[in-house]
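ok so for the tutorial part 2 we go from a plain amino acid sequence to predicted structure tokens. step 1 is just haveing the sequence, like this:
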Amino acid sequence: MAVTEEARAARDAKLDELHERLTGAVETLVSGEDWARALEFAARFRSRSFNNTLLIWVQHEAAFEAGRVPNPVPSFVAGYRQWQQLGRQVQKGQPGYMIFAPVTGRFASSNPADPSSWRRLGPREKHKVNEVVRTRMVGARPAYVWDVTQTEGDPIPETPAPKLLDGEAPAGLWDGLVAQVEALGFEVVRVADAGQIGGADGLTDYTTRQVSVRTDVTEVNQVATLVHELAHVLMHDPKDEEARQHRGIREVEAESVALMIGAAHGMDTSGYTIPYVAGWASSVKDTEPAEVIKATGERVRKTALGILDQLDTFQVANGTPPGLTRDVPASEASSRSAAPLPERPSAGAPALAGRGL
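step 2 — the prediction. this is what the tokens look like for a chain of 357 residues:
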């Protein structure tokens, strides 16, 4: 029993250490530049939760500064045995990056619609014939991953990267985004200039159910604006109580989604995003920018992944080594259900302008 208690204490100490590292990482993201860097990094490691992405980021930076890895930014990360599956071995003396891994439990219910009816099953307990079984996250434990530069062995296949000319948007991205907007019951309208939509780059009108985008700018800006407005439609339905928050938070979320979608396609939108996000994050009354970031990071990630999952476009790698099929924990899973589509807004809902107004 003493060993069990000792192991539990060691685990709790490691979890406390992880929380301290994560808090420190979040507290550094108080400027537009830092937030943009974090989102661009998260877009390249989008198979990981936002919290785990930050933990990998700060620990890899420390490893680079200590001379343990050759590159300032990681490319692919995986667990010890996962690297072995790919014919690679962690180099002797290379410490892993500690992240959160979910602890799951099985629950059964004969009446799934009633939250109080669910009961947790024991390790070998079988559910009854009339019961539905679901797996849920019940806690977290520390786990470790290593960057590919901390391993040696069989070569990792080179993955192609999107190559775009200055101002050019990826093939099929605009059409894919339009299809998602239309699936939500909105029409995409292209206007000649910002003067037609009150000086903004884009505008979402919940009354007419129209998303307007100015066309006198580069393809990249048009696509980024459309993503920004799609994020508003997905996340900020005026009928949703949670969406009735400070406009600064809404704008940080929408523009952050636009940056992640752009980064996942090799697009650089930081020139617009950095001052935009910095301005809105600092405008939230009685809330520190770091608190805004804590509240929005995972929501942004899940919304961006929900959009990416529905796009048939050429995207950058997601941080999982090529050839490895990773079982994604419930806490890190992304699917279309991760960013649920809101009900269609009512006719009396107001317009929401984005990117510049």
